[in-house]
Amino acid sequence: MSSISGPLSPSESYRASAERTAEAGTYLGGFLRTLDFELDEFQRLACRSLQEGKGVLVAAPTGAGKTIVGEFAIYLALERHLKAFYTTPIKALSNQKFTELSEKYGAENVGLLTGDTSINGDAPVVVMTTEVLRNMLYADSDTLDDLGFVVMDEVHYLADRFRGAVWEEVIIHLPSEVQVASLSATVSNAEEFGAWLDTVRGDTDIIVSEHRPVPLWQHVMVGRDIVDLFAGETTFDEIAPPADAETGAPIPVQERLTAPTNDADRQGFEVNPDLLKMARTEGQQSFAGRFGHGGRSQRRQHRQRTEERPRQGAQPGAVRKASRPQVVASLDRQDLLPAITFIFSRAGCDAAVAQCVSSGLWLTTEKEQRIIAQRVDEAGQDIPSEDLDVLGFWTWRDGLLRGFAAHHAGMLPTFKEVVEKLFVEGLVKAVFATETLALGVNMPARSVVLEKLDKFNGEAHVDITAGEYTQLTGRAGRRGIDVEGHAVVLWQPGTDPAAVAGLASRRTYPLNSSFRPTYNMSINLLAQFGRARAREILESSFAQFQADRSVVGLAKQVRSREESLAGYAKSMTCHLGDFTEYARLRRELSDAENVTSRSKSRAHKSLNEDSLARLMPGDVVDVPGGRAPGPAIVLSSDHSGREPRPAILTLDNQLRRIGTEDLEGPITPLTRIRIPKSFNAKVPKSRRDLASSARNALRENRPPAPGRSTDFGLGSVLPHQEKRITELRRALRAHPCHGCSEREDHARWSERWWKLRRETDALVRQIQGRTNTIAKTFDRVCDVLSAYGYLEAGADGRLAISSDGQRLRRIYGEKDLLISQSLRLGALNDLDAVEVAALASVLVYQAKREDRGLRPRMPSVSLESSVDVVIREWSALEDVEEANKLPLTAEPELGLVWPMYKWAKGRHLQEVLNGTELAAGDFVRWVKQVIDLLDQLAKIPGLDPRLARLCAEAISLIRRGVVAYSSVL
Length: 969
Fold this sequence. Notes:
The chain is of the alpha/beta class. The protein is 49% helix and 11% strand. The strands form five sheets. A nine-stranded mixed beta sheet has the order 1-9-2-8-7-3-6-4-5, with helices on both faces. Helix 3 (41-51) runs parallel beside helix 4, helix 14 (366-380) runs antiparallel to helix 17 (413-424) and helix 33 runs antiparallel to helix 34. The longest helix is centred in the middle third of the chain and has 36 residues, at 579-614.
């Protein structure tokens, strides 16, 4: 493995100069003559490896220039009259790379293939999303002919738990003669990843560079002042965590912070002492404020003293957080613009632009404003005028003219591309972005600001990792433009400077595989290679490679623990009898008591679930806790096998779902009312009227419906377990060791023995579980496919692909088997093109958790029936997956049905989005995914021609307006 950590020594420079002279007549020499700059050493090493016919893994910081290696691979392909594919994880990056390469090599030589766009697909150089290449490999596409090089940009994306497996599929299945150039952010296990690439792809060089060409300085913004995070002159290259002399492991941050303070002994770096003092002072003030005495007058005196004190950088004391306009103004004063401020919220990004605009701040000159206005107006001229308002065009334009913009997934792709171009050209000076901007989009800045160091991951607020911090701050410092880059963290109440320093110093993160066999992947492997070879291929995955490596360490732990167990057994020997047997009785007694306690708790929960499952629409109940305590009307029952969560309407007109966590015991109806057939939960008046009916019923004390059982079986609980506990206590007292004077001493050794035995057995199970894990999952997937008839046993006992299985081979997506089953059961047969588009949205759309609500009424009877087929099939499939211990297929979502139906009907965007939580950019993105699915279905070999025509017609209906306009600029 080649590792480049900094500038070369004189002897190394001389040797490098001689090598450059020798390579002048090679392909690399020709490539260098097309450039107007010198390559860094890591770039040159990687290019040489490609020229020698090897694969390469290049791991380097963001902005270091990894993509030049990919461009050399393209140059080699063209010089050798071969094809080159450039793959990216996201469409925005594909579009950007397509534009760059078209300008360099000519539009006739460069193509673009994404899920919804196809331009010049037979060109010698094609930019594509990684999924497109995976689909080509499984379809054995003719486009793969003469393929010589594949560049996998952002290859560390294979750690993504949703899409990462695609990268491994491509790497495994690419023809052996294809050279792969893998470009990655700096990862801590590059050697492990490279070793796997070497195993599956052949000779692969690993080239790691820790050096940033533009130094990165770390700061904290305290109030309106920008303060250095580290004491002294400490840049990105100098804060790598020092290694322990014996183990080689990085020394923890806290140990480095508490190391001796003289320069000769200090290890790694020193956090600015003013920041540490401020954090301590803030903590003391918080404690005094909550638990001290003196009340309002003392706090007023303290505030007056603080206001009288002159502002001096990181002055200890209470700090007022700067507003977003003040942050931008401070950056502007110190010549730190252009800047990207990362805000982990779309609404926060939009609000930041609005705040800067309303503050009266301008960052652009009159000349820049004229250029921006021309570019923006050109971008909007093809958008229907009636859609401009709903797209927020005028607000967006006003922000751009002043030098501000947001950048997030909810924006129209066209708007994002305009922002990216204006920012790169230096016309837009402050961008407020979500973290998606850090995924490869080429938008470097002079400074990067992080508002917070935590984010909401869809389930909870979690701290960002060191890898995420590195990815975000890596945007700071434009090569060839800036002398240095700057990363700024805003001071918040409770900020720990040592923790910020820890994030800044641990800039690498491990690359862990997310690979698992899917239905589509498995059936394609079976079709191409047969079951035995398919298992071998899966066992060559990076996931299995990592699992096998971890087994070596686990086996070493098992051997060490077995030796300790022998010593423990000797220490617990008792002269009165078999203490092992006595210890077993004690353990059984303890386990029986714990089981009884847990069983009682489970029985209580089961009774609560039973009471929820018995609730019927119209029941009025009293919810004791949760987000909606008090009386409520049950709107819909929930008889699902897992925890029931019936929908309710509170008397203050809020729609909620209740579960066992909201109950203190079984819930029973107080009274009952009739829900009118015309009731619509989305209409406020309907909700108010129903709540009023419930209040009347409660006042009149009407009884619930007759014949309803409220007996939840609260009789005696678990009598046989109580009897077992009594028997064990009796046996324990009768054992000879019970009278031993050293009984408790023996018992302590026995507890240690049993605890270590359990841990050792768990390690043994881990070893067994990690052996052939991927192949075992594949076997379970095959069992499910066989049960559904996608695989059939041939005369020779081998599995063969059925006609339905051949259809599944061409369906790609997270719900691949559910989509195939929906086709098989005729869910699309009675629909027209508009309804086909709407139903396709059910099989693609994924709502945010907070957006999920009651099932809406479908636009047509035929669509209602089709949705029922899909929901029933999903429920049955989930049961099968659960029985086979496979990941569950996500539930179909109905939140996009009405917007998609209206869009396919030709309605205006304003009308389509009215009453939904969808942003225009989100809607366009989901429509494109629906188009991608419909295109897959239309191209399935042997599909009913009528259905194929309907899919094609549906595509033409929804690929219009902003959707068609947003494909490619």
